[in-house]
Design goal:
The complex is a heterodimer of chains A (292) and B (452).
Chain A (H helix, E strand, L loop, with lengths): L12 H21 L17 H7 L5 H29 L7 H13 L2 H11 L6 H8 L16 H26 L3 H9 L4 H29 L3 H6 L12 H10 L3 H28 L5
Helix pairs in contact in A: 2-12, 3-7, 3-9, 4-7, 7-9, 9-12, 11-12
Chain B lengths: L1 H19 L20 H10 L4 E7 L5 H14 L2 E7 L1 H14 L5 E5 L2 H6 L3 H4 L14 H6 L1 E2 L2 E2 L1 E3 L8 E5 H6 L8 H13 L3 E4 L11 H5 L1 H6 L3 H6 L9 H15 L15 H7 L2 E6 L3 H8 L8 E4 L9 E3 L4 E5 L6 H11 L2 H10 L17 H9 L3 E3 L1 H4 L7 H12 L5 H18 L7
Parallel strand pairs in B: 1-2, 1-3, 8-9, 11-13
Antiparallel strand pairs in B: 3-12, 4-5, 6-12, 7-9, 7-10
Helix pairs in contact in B: 2-3, 14-15, 20-21
The chains are: A mainly alpha (292), B alpha/beta (452).
Chain lengths: 292, 452
């Protein structure tokens, strides 16, 4: 190999410098602040060690519930979005009438602004005047009309449902691209061997789609952990203390009340979550990748 | 090697270019601060010409700047040549943004903030961030109770923006009360009777909106004035951290009675999803009879339904825990001049202009919800109903969020706790304990000696 043809490492210096100054440094400083008593009440900054993290992980506060909510939200929406997205992608790669129209309809919710969607759904899910409950009452199923966003029993599931509705089309689009890139030769060979539709899906589509599924899962998980606008617009963490509170809405509220140090401690925890989950997930999911 | 040198050189140049934008223009000419006190017409014109370029920036929360004030500012520009640029921020983001701006030392020339002698000291830190306005021509005209909430160590730092005479009380539809032959309740038992009668007539007694997160919170600290009436000196004890909120009999009664109202259906079915923006509409529709409102509410209801006159909405104090003390709140939004402003003199001119008698009159006449601005020389426009309401109660008490430290800053947290209590996730005891806990956190962060 001609070593002279490879660019020397110091060519990356400029990019590295910019990246460090603009991304790494603020991140590290942020983590640094989580070990202080930074707040809007005082100019002085005192090192308090792990106190903020002790607060965050103590059983008294709601923080553990908030972390649990975030993880449940992430897991739930990721699994369901992937399953529904995959089903829709398989359906919408068959030759059916108005194919692009169907794809467009499914993709539409992802294009709309989350905040606007949140407001629309706050109105649709309003217990007395909302479209959904009015519909149920109209067809004589008044018993199904529930306080979707205002009862601790249903609020979290409702928020997840709206998010799944919004995100499935996006996942579907990525998976459609993945399915279309699979060579038709495999399916042809399969047909000649007499494979059924399920077998084609199980032994060709799914294995060859794994890299794409890995991508959609990573995207979903990162989105789920970082979710803010959907929850903010639908319930703002309520009803009650922390029924639908997730990490980002909690961080937002802590900054709003001037408790910056707790806010940064929470975001540091979230950062660790993301690095940990992201790293292991990518390793796990790319382990058995099928190479074409 | 040549390549290495070239790369190093270009990197250095790029860095120099990138950082050159960060230099402060410390040598920039600073004129236009000396001409603040010119009074004669000639001097004004000269000043107007010289200050032609000055634009004051004024940051405030949504609803704090009235159209009438913007109209007045045009007159101010005509007189002095100084323009005012209003930066209106959504209310839920305002405090956060203001604190960030103050902490980074880059605030607007004038900023709005809630008054309250404890909060302006601990949170806004006016001694450092705002200009002392004690010696201004209008300073002595501010009503004493209101001025007290704008002062630290006897120095006045702010100018009130709004009418603060209005109190959060129960606004009721007089027509419904008359039809059902009801009288103004004087304690919780009579309030219950009123609610039962209204409910029996097929009308929801109280319109409450929990989803906004702040309105349902009012019941506790507003009716909480009763705590001081029941146990004189309790407010001082709370401020000196001698007793906690938890275990206070009055506050516990209020919380229990909130639960009781919900359980008995006085708030109807949709209290969790109702919104404050719809309150006038719902009272105007006649589906609801009462709501916690301030004294501009009658005008709002009248706007929606002309059949209900503004005076058809009457008021009585929240009778939880048998409260009969008028819950006044001398705190409200105020204008402060940022101490780091280059145009502090012009900003003072603007405040002086607004406090002129004719301009106070203009504001009172042109803003529906203003009945009496808190200046001694401001005109009063109370209607008979409102005057009656204020005269009905002998005793006045300052609401808890203003009288007691570290309560107002946790308003939204209190709101979340109360809604958790309403849906059965927390007990009244836990709600009070949580308020104590957040108070302690804030006091500690502020270095309050009473919490050490």
């Amino acid at each position: 190999m001609n070593r002279k043809k490879i660019y020397p490492t110091w060519f990356a210096a400029g990019a590295l410098l910019l990246y460090s100054v603009l991304f790494v440094l603020p991140g590290v400083i942020g983590i640094g602040y989580s070990f202080t008593d930074w707040s809007s009440y005082s100019d002085r900054l005192k090192f308090v060690g792990l106190e903020n993290f002790r607060t965050v992980f103590s059983a008294d506060g709601n923080y553990l519930k908030i972390m649990k909510n975030t993880l449940v939200f992430t897991l739930g929406t990721t699994v369901i979005k992937n399953i529904l997205g995959l089903a829709l992608a398989v359906l919408l790669t068959k030759s059916i009438r108005l194919l692009n129209f169907h794809r467009g309809v499914m993709f539409m919710p992802s294009v709309l602004s989350t905040l606007i969607l949140g407001m629309i759904f706050t109105s649709i899910l309003n217990p007395s005047t909302g479209l959904l409950n009015t519909f149920f009452r109209g067809i004589g199923l008044g018993g199904l009309a529930k306080p979707w966003l205002t009862s601790p029993v249903y609020a979290f599931k409702s928020v997840m449902a709206v998010d799944i509705w919004r995100g499935t089309g996006y996942i579907m689009t990525i998976l459609i691209a993945g399915i279309l890139s699979i060579s038709s030769d495999y399916y042809e060979a399969c047909s000649i061997d007499g494979a059924s539709g399920w077998q084609k899906f199980r032994f060709i589509t799914l294995p060859l789609l794994l890299p794409t599924l890995a991508t959609t899962t990573v995207l979903n998980v990162i989105y789920g952990l970082k979710v803010f606008d959907m929850i903010y617009a639908l319930t703002n963490g309520g009803p009650g203390k922390a029924t639908t509170e997730v990490l980002y809405t909690a961080v937002f509220k802590k900054f709003g009340t001037g408790q910056y140090a707790i806010g940064t401690a929470l975001s540091s925890v979230m950062f660790l979550f993301m690095v940990f989950i992201g790293f292991f997930m990518i390793r796990l999911m790319t382990k058995d990748e099928v190479q074409e | 090697m040549k390549l290495k040198k070239l790369a190093a050189l270009s990197l250095a140049m790029a860095a120099a270019l990138a950082f050159s934008g960060c230099t402060k223009q410390e040598n920039a000419p600073q004129k236009s601060t000396a001409e603040g006190e010119s009074t004669s017409a000639d001097a004004k014109t000269t000043a107007a010409q010289e200050k032609g370029g000055v634009t004051l920036s004024f940051m405030a929360s949504q609803d704090w700047i009235q159209d009438a004030e913007i109209e007045l500012s045009k007159k101010f520009t005509q007189e002095t040549g100084i323009k005012v640029d209003y930066q209106i921020i959504p209310s839920d983001q305002y405090v956060n943004l203001l604190m960030t701006k103050l902490n980074t030392g880059e605030c607007t020339d004038i900023f709005g903030a809630q008054s309250g002698k404890f909060d302006i000291k601990a949170q806004i830190n006016v001694e450092k961030n705002a200009v002392d306005l004690t010696k201004t021509s209008w300073g002595s005209q501010v009503e004493p109770l209101v001025a007290d909430e704008l002062s630290v160590d006897g120095k006045l730092y702010g100018q009130p923006i709004q009418d603060v005479s209005s109190v959060w009380a129960i606004g009721y539809n007089k027509q419904i009360f008359k039809k059902l032959n009801l009288e103004i309740p004087k304690d919780y038992a009579s309030f219950q009777k009123v609610c039962d009668t209204i409910k029996a007539a097929g009308i929801t007694p109280v319109y409450e909106c929990v989803s906004d997160g702040w309105h349902h919170t009012l019941w506790l600290p507003e009716a909480g004035v009763e705590a001081e009436t029941a146990e004189p000196g309790i407010v001082d004890k709370w401020n000196n951290n001698q007793v906690p909120f938890k275990g206070n009999a009055t506050l516990m009664t209020i919380l229990d009675q909130i639960n009781d109202m919900v359980a008995k259906g006085y708030w109807g079915e949709d209290y969790m999803s109702n919104t404050y923006a719809d309150s006038a509409k719902n009272i105007a529709s006649g589906k609801y009879a009462m709501t916690v409102a301030n004294q501009g509410f009658g005008v709002e209801v009248n706007k929606v339904n002309p059949d209900i006159a503004a005076d058809d909405i009457g008021y009585f104090v929240i009778p939880l825990a048998d409260n009969q003390t008028l819950n006044v709140n001398p705190a409200g939004p105020a204008r402060f001049i940022f101490s780091g402003s280059k145009h502090a003199a012009e900003a003072q001119q603007y405040l002086e202009f607004l406090a002129k008698e004719e301009n106070l009159k203009y504001l009172t006449e042109n803003v529906g919800k203003f009945n009496k601005l808190p200046f001694l020389n401001a005109p009063s426009m109370y209607t008979e109903t409102i005057q009656d309401f204020y005269n009905r109660y002998d005793k006045k008490g300052t609401v808890i969020q203003t009288a007691v430290k570290y309560v107002n800053p946790q308003w939204s947290e209190m709101g979340a706790n109360l809604s958790a209590m309403i849906v059965g996730e927390m007990t009244p005891d836990e709600v009070l304990a949580s308020i104590d806990e957040v108070r302690a956190q804030q006091a500690k962060a502020a270095g309050d000696p009473a919490w050490k």
